[in-house]
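SAMPLE LOG
Freezer: B-3
Tube label: C17
Construct: single chain, 555 aa
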Amino acid sequence: MNDQQMETILFVDDEESILNVASEFFKRQGYQTFTASNGVEALEILKNENVDCCFTDINMPEMNGLDLAENIKLLDNTMPVIVMTGYPSLENTIQTIKNGVVDFLIKPVNLKQMELCMRRVLRQRALFVENVLLKEEVKSKERLEKLNQELIYKVEELHILNKIMSSFTSIVSTTDVFKRAVDVALEITHADSAMFYVINDSVNQPFEVASARAKTVPGNQISAPDSHRAKNGADLRGPVGNPLSLDGLIMEAVSDEIPLLVSNNNGARGLPPELRSAMVVPLKIREKVFGVLTATLGQEGIRFTEKELFYLSFMAKSAAHSIENLALYENIYENLFATLYAFVNAVEARDLYTREHSSRVTGISMIIGKQLGCTVEELDILNFAGHLHDIGKIGIRDDILLKPGRLTDEEFEKIKEHPTIGANILEQLGFWEKERQIIRCHHERYDGTGYPDGLKKEQIPFLARIMSVADVYDAMASDRAYRKRMEEEVILKIIYEGVGTQFDPDVVAAFKEVYNQGTIVHYMETGQIKDADGNHAVQHRTDGTSNIERPTSIE
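STRUCTURE (predicted):
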């Protein structure tokens, strides 16, 4: 008997002696055996046991061998079935083969012959199963490769779409939108040229406003026609190579309001032969065509496909969305600013000094800021906060705000609330943190004895320390309801003696420098700020603004 576990064999025959002899022989050879007297019993065994090979007689009660073979084929088409019969005939042979029988033995059967036959059919079965498994493995590998390619494509597509969307997140002006659109379009479509043209009810001819060209492809560049010039005759196209007109394709895309793809230029669209492939995508603002984004190829063997057209269309939609958001933000910004100036006007209606004082504090702050090397952004913050630094006085009662005499301690405590009130007003309107902090802290003192929070030294925002000096100077240099303007020498003495206690020493040093240059006095007399060359750098307008523009971003 073999130690190794060998195959399991099922013997089916209505002659019990044959079953006993065959079963006993194969058990001695190390095989596991089952026996059944007909096909019905055999099927019950096959439902519960794993069988590798079946020997069966043909003529049996209840279910014969041929029907059993057919049922086995349905259960497991790899299991070999060997038929044993004492009445061989051509008809039986043909029928057994049709039913999935793999071999045919004539009774009386030699037991060694049965074993050899079984070993042969099991080898054939092993080869068959291996072949099936290999085929399945190949199919599975092909499916995996296909799925992998699809996944790679999807990942690449998502990467490109994400790149397009993220390209417009930090845009602060519509001009930047157009430039970013053509730059990214050039990158993701691998075009030779990408351009954005404005064309709408106001601009009847395509007017180029932004372009990008691949550095590795000299010449063969797409451009607007010579008629696309400003009214003063200046060519707004910038330097171009060999101009190729897309006017016809652009007008067609605008008219149909759908993206157009010329994958392979055959001259049917009226395009020049140097242009191999082109795409034109309308950009719509509020469902109306505002302009078109184009991409072109002039290289042999390279063509745009629908995939690139999809990317360019997505680019146009993202650019349009960015433009709409910018327009919405600018509109909200203007509305909020108008609201704030309405508050200022309300304070001015009660005390005209407030407006004049705020404008002068803004100008003096910006003069000092420029001397200290403030950035354009910091000067802009000073400009905004300066005009609104006393907006909180709208919350102070008239009998205190307009009192001609000296305030009582209780009244002064009420006045001291105006920085907090002003900062809270801006906070409720959703305005900028830096500007709110300046408004809240412009009465803090360098030694920590100011209000409302008792901050000291660097705890006080740097721009608030600048505004503090400007605020005190103008307060002393202006007529008030309860006193006349102070003498200039007295004002300067108070400011210079306040170094290190009320004021930041560096800010006072900058103030002293610009005062000695005559810049402060010139501004107080004319309302104009001179730069280092004596030119008027900033002039404040009567609406409380200046010619320094706010950046279109919220911090």
